[in-house]
Write a structure and sequence with these properties.
Elements (H helix, E strand, L loop, with lengths): L2 H71 L1
Length: 74
């Protein structure tokens, strides 16, 4: 291969490869940010669901104890 052929090869193949690497890096960085945001949102939702579960248990127990008290009064 002569110098002209190597220069042609680098020009035709090297630029697209470089652009692909740059684009891949950009996409991966953006995906990482989005995955971090998604992870945070899932953790917040998990916490909210756990809090609702605790409140539901407390409300149910309170309601059941009130029903038992009402039964005793009749």
């Amino acid at each position: 291969m002569d110098t002209q052929a190597i220069a042609n090869l680098l020009t035709n193949v090297g630029f697209p490869v470089a652009m692909c690497v740059i684009l891949l890096k950009y996409v991966l960085q953006n995906m990482e940010k989005q995955f971090n945001q998604l992870n945070t949102a899932v953790k917040e939702l998990t916490s909210a669901i756990q809090n609702l579960h605790v409140e539901f248990k407390q409300t149910t127990l309170t309601s059941l104890s009130n029903v038992e008290k009402e039964k005793k009064t009749f």
